[in-house]
Structures are given as structure tokens and as C-alpha cells.
Amino acid sequence: MFNINNILRENIKNLKPYSSARDEFKGEASVYLDANENAFGSPLNKDYNRYPDPLQYAVKMRLSEIKGVPARNIFLGNGSDEAIDILFRSFCNPGADNVILVPPTYGMYEVSANINDIAVKRVNLTEEYQLNLEGIAEAIDKNTKLIFICSPNNPTGNSINREDIETLLANFNGLVVVDEAYINYSRQKSFIQELTEYANLVVLQTLSKAWGLAALRVGMAFASEEIIAVMNKVKPPYNINEASQQLALEALQNVEQVNGWIKETLTERDNLVLKLKEFEFVVDIYPSDANFILVKTTDARGIYNYLVEHGIIVRDRSKVELCEGALRITIGTPQENITLINTLTNFK
């Protein structure tokens, strides 16, 4: 049975977190002389001279309404990358512990592991881009603390079988981290509804994709209160700046607009797939539950360079394991997609 104290690093158990001025005082006051801020304001149209809410309460309350998850089960980070890094720093002992990754997958998991001196065990996805459960079971040892699963997966675009993820959650005594950066485009339901069922589940989401707020760097982690408390303990005091908090809160009022963009993206995805299949140099287009498609071609590098020459940038994934010859293409606006197709018509 999962017990957080069995995988939490000893130094984190004993860590006394930094107590900021805004941690020590709750509520409103007329005079703030506690945080050594510039009392005269800031040289901008809006005053940013005061430190932001360290726990982003207003944003979490709005997210709670949208996601159906209590605010106490939400962590906000400087992008999902900060949440990933904090999980390594909280639960993995450098030079001793290991994590399991399932390539091809999001590259920051391995980068973060390397930065934190954590060994990586790779268990490749199957040819159908699904989990190799037997291989994962064989790779787990007493020092395996985290398993990262991206679903829908980047760069392949497909969702991972839900039953396979549940099998890991039920049988692994470390954390299973399900990265749902592209969940808004998926037919699968989010795993955040399963938080009460699995104490070892961490779900990552972001405002960078469907919500169109990549520049603000606001990532989310959903987990048990115990895990969220650890993450809040380890994070920097003011990890989400005031401008990002205010703009995120404003954006989160526009659910209908975002839902409209999602529907249009899915329609454009279907149209783009049909158009691309007409080209002889397209070998295969893999099923996608994301806002991008993985396209297997006869000459990935040649097509990539050709598109660059014409001012169109896609992602060459041809050197990634199990993605040989493939380009990852984000779904653009209708006009951007037309421009892509028209440009490719002249590729030889």
C-alpha cells in the first residue's frame, strides 16, 4: 500500500520552509510595512510593487470550480516544468533513486532527472504507442520513485489506455505522474476525477495549450493534500508572479471561448489529416487526441528544411525512437493550415 513517507526524502521531511511576509499575515490591511517593498508603487500603469499571493488562492478557487477539484488539491507552478522538477527534488534522492520513462515522450522528464542526478530507466512504448506493462514491472526496483506517463502523449498524439494506467496506480508504491497537457483535445476523461481513488496519483495540466496562455507560464498539478503540501513546502515563495495570476484569473472566466477554439481545432485537425494523406511522401498519420499530429514521411528532414525556407516551422521528430521519418505538426488556424498544404504541393 502506498505511503508517502516511504518515498519522501528525509531532508524534505525535516525541511522548515521559508516563511514569507505574505505567509505570516492573512487578509487585508491599510498599511503594509512588513515586506520591504517599494511603498511608492511601480513605474507601470498598474502597481506591481506588492508581492503576490504565494499560494495563488483566487486562481485555485476558479480552477476548483472548472475542474471539480478542491483548491487544497491543486498546486500551481511556473509551467508544468516546475511541478516536474519539484517532484524530483521532493521524492528522489540524487545518485540513489531512479524513475521510469516510457519513450517516445516529453523530453523534460529526462532533462529534469539529469539535472537532479536521478537515474532514468527507459521502457519504450509498444509499436502501437501503448505501455509495455510487463517491461515496466521488470524495471521497477526498491529505488524507483516515479513513473511518468504523458497522455495524450507527446510527440505521438495518442491517449494511453486508461486501464493500463490504473494497473500501474494499483500496483506501484511510488508516484504515477500522468501528464495531461493536451487533455482538453482528448476523448478520454481526465484522471483528476480519480484522485480520491489513488493516493499515489499526480495529474499535470497546463494553461499553455488549449487555454492559449503559454507566455504566462502557469502549470497545474492535482494530487492528494499530502502531496500538494510537500510541493508547496519545496517551491519558491512567490513562484507565480502577480501579472500571471491576474491574467490567468481573467482568462479563466472565458470557458466558452476556449471550448469554441477546441472544437475548431479538432475540425481543422480532421481536415488537415485528409489533405496530408493525398501527398505521396506521406506514409502514415497516427491517430491523435491532441492539437498536433505525427506524420510519417519518406523524407522528414527534406520536408522540414523545405518548409523552413518558406517560413513554416514544424517539428522534426525523425531522430526520436519509434518516430523515425516523422514530423510533428501543430494544428494551426484555417489559413495557416491552407498555407501549409499549398506550400507542400510544390515539394519535390
Count of discrete domains: 2
Kindly state the number of beta strands.
11
Q: Topology as H/E string?
A: HHHHEHEHEHEHEEEHHHEEHEEH
**What name does the CATH topology of the largest domain carry?**
Aspartate Aminotransferase, domain 2
**What is the CATH class designation of the largest domain?**
Alpha Beta
Biggest sheet, strands in spatial order? 1-7-6-5-4-2-3
Largest sheet: 7 strands, mixed
CATH level-two architecture of the largest domain: 3-Layer(aba) Sandwich
Protein name: Histidinol-phosphate aminotransferase
Family: Belongs to the class-II pyridoxal-phosphate-dependent aminotransferase family. Histidinol-phosphate aminotransferase subfamily.
Pfam families: Aminotran_1_2 (PF00155)
Pathway: Lipid metabolism; Amino-acid biosynthesis; L-histidine biosynthesis; L-histidine from 5-phospho-alpha-D-ribose 1-diphosphate: step 7/9
Overall description:
Pathway: Lipid metabolism; Amino-acid biosynthesis; L-histidine biosynthesis; L-histidine from 5-phospho-alpha-D-ribose 1-diphosphate: step 7/9. Keywords: Amino-acid biosynthesis, Aminotransferase, Histidine biosynthesis, Pyridoxal phosphate, Transferase. Its cofactor is pyridoxal 5'-phosphate. This is Histidinol-phosphate aminotransferase. This protein is of the alpha/beta class and about 350 residues long. The strands form two sheets. The chain has a seven-stranded mixed beta sheet with strand order 1-7-6-5-4-2-3, sandwiched between helices. A four-stranded antiparallel beta sheet has the order 8-9-11-10, with helices on one face. The chain has two domains: about 5-20 and about 55-255, 3-Layer(aba) Sandwich (Aspartate Aminotransferase, domain 2); about 255-345, Alpha-Beta Complex (Aspartate Aminotransferase, domain 1). It is built from 13 helices and eleven strands.
